[in-house]
# Entry
Amino acid sequence: MSKVEVGPNEPLEKALRRFKKKIEREGILKMLKARKHYEKPSEIKRRKARSSRSRNKKF
# Structure
């Protein structure tokens, strides 16, 4: 569970922005989107292969 401490004079918008960044870094948002609908095992393999290919490209 992610937490963000809000200072006494800190605006709520700033704390919310920090919370969103923290959630993004931890990968929680990506995980929730992935669980939103069923993905077939073949689609999972295809997605992982595609992402590893783009990660391993040499410039």
In short: The chain has a mean pLDDT of 86. The chain has three helices and no strands. Residues 24 and 31 are 10 Å apart (CA to CA).
